[in-house]
Amino acid sequence: MGKIISFANQKGGVGKTTSAVNVAASLGVLGYKVLLIDLDPQGNATSGVGIVKKNLKVSAFDMLTSDATAEEVTIKTRFDNLSVIPTNTTLARAEYELADVENGEYVMKKKLEAAKNVYDYIIIDCPPSLGMLTVNAMTASDGVVIPMQCEFFALEGLSQLMFTISRIKTHYNKDLNVTGILITMYNNRLILSMQVINELRKHYADKLFETTVSRNVKLSEAPSFGAPVYYHDKRSKGSNEYMNIAKELAERI
Q1: What average pLDDT does this structure show over 192-218?
Q2: CATH classification of 3-252, choosing from 3.90.280.10, 3.90.1300.10, 3.40.50.1450, 3.40.50.300?
Q3: What's the pLDDT at 194?
Q4: Longest C-alpha distance within the chain, in Å?
Q5: Angle formed by the axes of helices 16-29 and 237-252, to 10°?
Q6: Cα separations in angstroms, 82 against 36, 77, 78, 79, 97
């Protein structure tokens, strides 16, 4: 049965979507069958795998707010073993609709039961908030990957996110665990970067991914080509780093 992993951080601009897209694609390259779910109304993961948002007939919104099944809203991408449940700005309405549904926290969990028998990994790109969409994702998940930058405010945000994960584990999903903390946009020439990593090692040593994601031009370019970095430049540093992270993720869960 497949594993569901949420990529979550309520702080925007930390490389969350970049990480979700590239880990999903790298797992596909490694031979795993992968479903990427874009649960961020901005829809960047959707465009990041070459899907044109304005052309969508069905999306994650339909799966969460109607009788549409996960299979009915899934699109096969042109990349190895990678499918996607796309989204667009319509998804923002789902926050309010799910709040009005009895046991609305469990909608995604129910919708993904069948998909877990089809895919090895289901990767969910959560919105940069701790609302109903993120709660739904975590309630359905086996684990959470937390991408974060080496900044002081990132440490403060991590504490809040850990508290939220703990509450969801208590109230909705007793099997939820933090799969790992992923350092992104890393620059080893900055003293602050080393200070933040040292602080993380004090409190979360067993949760840190061994591989960090460096600032990389190819990583920044890839979304404009509608492709994960492996398919944009497989020899790039970013491609190698995300491939190593995908391997580590497969070992962790």
Answers
A1: 87
A2: 3.40.50.300
A3: 79
A4: 52
A5: 80
A6: 7, 6, 8, 6, 29
